Amino acid sequence: MPLLHAIQKDQGLLSNEAAEWVAEKLGIEPINVLSVITFYPFFRQHKIGKRHIRVCRTLSCAMAGGAKVCDTMLSEFDAKLNDVSPDGEVTVEFAECLASCGSAPVMLVDDELYENLDESKTKEICDRIKTEATGA
Amino acid sequence: MAIHPKEQRLILKYADESGYTPDIDCYMKHGGYEMLKKAVGMDKQAICDEVKNSQLRGRGGAGFPAGVKWSFVDRKSGKPVYMVCNCDESEPGTFKDRQIVHKDPHQLIEGIMISCFATDCAKAFIYIREEMPKGAEILNQAIKEAKEKGFVGDNILDSGYSCDIVVHRGAAAYICGEETGLIESLEGKRANPRIKPPYFPAALGLYMCPTIVNNVETLCNVKHILEMGAEEFAKIGRPNNTGTRIWCVSGGVKRPGYYEVAGITLGELIYDICGGPKEGREIKAIIPGGSSMKILKNGERFKGKNRDGSEYDWGIEDIPLDYDGIAAAGSMSGSGGMMVLDDSVEIPVALANLMAFYSHESCGQCTPCREGSLWLKKITTRMVHGEARPEDVDLMKSVADQIEGRTICAFGFAVAWPVQSYIAKFEDEFREFAERHSKTDVDRTAAKALACNH
Amino acid sequence: MEEKDNLITVNIDGQDLQVLPGTNMVEAAAMLGKEIPHYCYHPKLSVAGNCRMCLVELGMPGRDRATGEPMLNEDGSPKIMWMPGPAIGCGTKAAPGMHIKTDSPKALESREAVTEFLLVNHPLDCPICDQAGECTLQEFSSAHGRGYSRFIEEKNVKPKRTRLGPRVTLDDERCVLCSRCVRFCEEIVDDGVLGFTDRGSYSTLTCFPGKELSNNYSLNTVDICPVGALTSTDFRFKMRVWFLKESNSIDFESSVGANTVVSAREGKIYRIKPRRNDEVNDTWMTDSGRELYKIVESEDRLTQCSIDGAPASAQDAIAKASDLLKNPSGGVAIVGSGLCSVEEQFALKAIAESVDAKGVYLVARYGDGDGILLSADRNPNTRGALMTGLIASLPEEQLSALGAQIDSGEVTTVLAVKEDLIAAGLTEEQLKKVTLVYLGAHRNDTTGKASALLAGLTQFEKSGTVVNQQFRIQKFNRVVPGPGGAIEDIYALASIQANLSEESFPSTVGSVWKQLGAEGTPFAGISFQSLSDQGQLLDGSAFDGLPFREGKSLHFEPKGEAVAAE
To answer: What is the maximal distance between C-alpha atoms in chain B?
Structure first.
């Protein structure tokens, strides 16, 4: 798994070639690597937007309005759930409990956790992402 | 966050103080690593005995006595013994280990090192969930600092004992919190839990060697047990429920968050510390220990006989906030992740939300959980979308009964208990919901948002 | 290898049973004739414990916690502490005093539950699924299922009819994720190409893109798949299994002698599957061995006897053959075959003596052994020829010695059985020099030159025995009748021998054994009738000095140094 993390960080996804490479290095079959890649939601074989947005959907965040946060994200970027946004900047996904239920609703933007979200805070974060996207 | 007066901070004593930082200098200024220094001069069995006598119970969910777990390790085979720190923290409602790892990582490291020394482990692993990337960085940095000072790695404090800690990042799977699932994941495979027997970690764990899997909070407690002694530690809380616990409260309360407490009731936590329900709302139900545990209905009476023969008759607020107390109320304290459902939450929709969670996280190995969890998700989703039938409630209960106890790991219970308890305690609400939502002109937006099934 | 003192007592449904400690409880129950239904468990594979179908109630004798003394009932019997939840039978190893209940209400409920769950996402494919009639899911659903469905949701959709490999078709919707195929490929063949992708109920069996399940044991996964997820592409849609008549046979591909079951209907063979023999092939066989049934209807099949190229009746051809062998112009040589049965080789030996044969040959066939169930010796019955005395040493791959005998004029007449002499190294000129009598089932470069050509039968059309690399004699049974113009080989040889010796010679497989199994012979005491379907190990020590080429394979260790056939 550390190998897969490293490759995904570098290449943005785990291609079948990468899987074969890992298999050879570790002396296992490529299917064993693919098996692991497809088991864990974090490992992906498709490209995503530049920023990876994960909004928690499990009970406490849902009760606090997690769905609304996701809707806001999607509309701010005119994106569809799980797809790359038209400007290529974000992919918005739901994630399961992110272990920060006391400050629900929460979401991860890449490695950064944003807590106690509401519509305005969410919009702020979107603005910041857009600003950072222009290379500021 | 300010510490509430009803808290009793032991583990998170300094973590929230302003100016407290995760680096080793700050930790040592507060007396850090003194216990490790003491430990390496002690007899290993003596440390294990202290932990046993302290009656420390696991803080990860099962609540198994840690000292007893340590004593199960197979010492006859000659294989190396491994220590695994379970920092997967994926049980919905739980967020205590996050605090420890991000704010006071050295406490965990010291706890791990003392435990490894006491159990003569060859190597330690911290399995941290992928969604805590900063946590992994912080831990790696802390381990580096600790190594520089000789607290981790070769010849620790000139004791002759060597043990390294490796941080292993997960990849977003709840089942990695299950101890054998975690071990499989550490070995680089799908996190399929193993059948027990024969694969008890104490005998055949990581790389088929004897392994101890402990929760973050449990390992942190080891240092404090050594510091104050088992007897003093055992005075905190009550017999068989010793030490403090970090409770995580979320949902319909004024002040959700984490609170380290001992010896209080559920009511004191929810009403005093957390401020009770939000303005204009009433508490409908409480899930005491993470979403896998049976729900407690507000207004229900919890009656029974204590071990000494005396009887108890509690309202939800009277339940002692510990392992035995919540167990006596018919649920489990689990991972300490308490979710409060107020009257804005419709129970069937909450169930739909959870069934989507469990069906998504099921590893798929064994038949009842794999098929049953998805079936339950499909039924509850159908309910939210207004196509429930009268027999669905009985069907769900039957399906849950069929899963319970028949699976490889405790995930089966985790799927079944919410269904069984929600239906048992809120059956009328289910039937009423099904009826109301089967009408065509009902607005389902709120329900769909809460169920959040995609 | 049983140590009687070692046995422990377990109790199954109230009945005591003595077993070796550590015996799998599913096997233990089978000893009492009880079937604990299961999908993922297989006696020759590791225990996975994931289907949960074998859940039973489990109890152990209780021990008092304080004193450690066994707890007793009022009548003095050990008090059994029953586990609160069911336990899987396949994952439970016998321990002293263990009690299980396989048919209690709890056990039955568990089975009903698991069956219901398996059917929840299983497609309603029975009408079009090859497995119907031999499908474990069908059997257990009717035996242990609820009988009606409560599932009204949409079933999962997964890839259907994918080509997993050249001989195996995969239907992922039918797959119950028992992982037998995955474990088989990893553990038995060491070709771990199969695995699961995705998670939960969406888990899917697959190969890595670009790789396929193509090893020479791929069809065993089809055999062990409890449902119709893995199916044989060759057999697909050809026949409903309940119309098939099964006959026990032996694989002729090599000296391994894998036990097989051949399925046929109305004279046509549809498939070959392995038959369990724990001493020879467990429950496996090669894919290539399964192809052999195609020789029955191959284009080069001899369907008619002939004399000097002109069609003749079998009786006439036999008479002609006998005449040629009785009145040769010079010496007679015999080329027998490692493909002949023991009975046929015995008759050939008798003929060899009658004609005072100047040379008796077999043609050796070698290939690479794969270490599992394909040995280096590609003749199934070399050892039969040795034990009947037809030959005394291992045959050569080429008939150069015979060629020399022909060139020198020593041999003028050759009786060849089942072997293409040209392919074995004789030249056209050499063949022209001899009078040839040929008995075999297929045309080849030699058969055209035979003065008396006897159309014989393949191993599927007659019965007999062969001796494998372990010196185990095993019997194969007739599956389908041969072509009308062909003659049973043992009958043809016996008739020739009778003509040569002017004494009768037993002409059926059954009657031959009166002589073959007589006292003092290597086969003493055996008869075709009484020979077990699992074969019988013979004493081959007389041949210990011979340089057999077979290397290690499943259930076989070569005695001496195997000649490396790399």
So the answer is: 75
The C-alpha of C268 sits at a distance from chain B's nearest C-alpha, in angstroms, of 40
Domain-by-domain residue ranges, chain B? 24-236, 244-342, 347-451
How confident is the model over B245-286, as pLDDT tens digits?
999 999 999 999 999 999 999 999 999 999 999 999 999 999
CATH class of A51-133: alpha beta
Q: Of all residues in chain A, what percent carry a pLDDT higher than 90?
A: 96
CA B355 to chain centroid, in Å, comes to 19
* Residues of chain C contacting residue B362, judged by C-beta atoms under 8 Å apart: 199-201
Task: List CB contacts of A99: < 8 A, sequence separation 6 or more.
Answer: B89, B90, B94, B95, B97, B98, B129, B131, B132
Report the C-alpha gap between C72 and C80 in whole angstroms.
Answer: 8
Residues C389 and C489 in one domain: yes
Q: Are C99 and C9 in contact (CB under 8 A)?
A: no
Which chains pack against B, by 3+ Cβ pairs within 8 A?
A, C
Q: What was the pLDDT predicted at C69?
A: 86
Give the domain-ending residue among C52, C82, C112: C112
For chain C, how big is the Rg over CA atoms in Å? 28
The ipTM estimated for the assembled molecules is 0.95
3-state SS, residue C539: coil
| Architecture of the domain defined by B24-236 | 3-Layer(aba) Sandwich (3.40)
Q: How many Cβ pairs within 8 Å bridge chains B and C?
A: 96
Cβ pair C195:A34 closer than 8 A? yes
Pairing of strands B257-261, B245-251: antiparallel
For residue C562, the model assigns a pLDDT of 47
Contact A102 B256 (CB under 8 A): yes
High-pLDDT (> 70) share of chain C, %: 98
Kindly report, residue by residue over C310-343, the tens digit of the pLDDT.
999 999 999 999 999 999 999 999 999 999 999 9
Selected residue of A15, A29, A37, A43 to mutate for chain C interface (largest C Cβ count, 10 A): A29
Average pLDDT over residues C535-562: 89
What's the one-letter identity of residue C103?
D
Domain shared by C438 and C524, yes or no: yes
The predicted model gives C72-86 an average pLDDT of 90
- The arithmetic mean of pLDDT across residues B44-50, rounded, is 96
* Chain segment B281-326, per-residue pLDDT in tens: 999 999 999 999 999 999 999 999 988 889 999 999 999 999 999 9
- In this structure, which amino acid lies at residue C445? D
Q: In this structure, how many other beta carbons lie within 10 angstroms of the beta carbon of residue C245?
A: 11
Q: Shortest CB distance from C117 goes to which of B197, B368, B395?
A: B368
Longest pairwise C-alpha distance within chain C = 97
Question: What CATH number is given for B347-451 in this structure?
Answer: 1.20.1440.230
Distance CA B404, CA C85 (A): 9
Name the residue among A16, A20, A35 with its Cβ closest to that of C195: A35
**Looking at beta carbons, which residues of chain A come within 8 Å of B339?**
59-60, 101
Instruction: Decide if B200 contacts B150 (C-beta within 8 A).
Output: no
CA–CA separation, B411 and B127 (whole Å)? 19
Please spell the DSSP secondary structure of C269-281, one letter per residue.
EEEEEE--BTTTT
Write phi, then psi, for A32 (nearest 5 degrees).
-65, -35
Q: What is the four-CA torsion angle of C157, C160, C165, C169, rounded to 10 degrees?
A: 130
Structure tokens at A85: 């946004």
C53 chain-B contacts, CB cut-off 8 A: 367
Q: Min CA distance, B363 vs chain C (Å)?
A: 5
Q: What is the pTM of this model?
A: 0.94
Residue to test with chain A: of C189, C190, C197, C213, most A Cβ within 10 A: C197
How close A92 comes to chain C (CA, Å)?
21
Say yes or no: A102 contacts chain B, CB-CB below 8 A.
yes
Which of C290, C289, C292, C239 is CA-nearest to residue C266? C239
